[in-house]
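cron nightly-structures :: item 1 of 1
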Amino acid sequence: MAKMNAGVAIVEMLRQEGVSHMFGIVGSSFLDILDPLYDRDDLKFIGVRHEQGAALMADGYSRISG
């Protein structure tokens, strides 16, 4: 059985749930999730500088995208 790290598992779960965009802070604590996103075209990560900005952007995006 192939091993899967937590980052790959999270990205796969988000893809299966139909998530197309992620908002968050780029940092070393988040690299396990960012690495599997590098080669993917179906899930886009939008990096921000502040957590509040990520939350507001995600809220706005969800409101206009349905």
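cron nightly-structures :: done
The CA atoms of residues 22 and 42 lie 11 Å apart.
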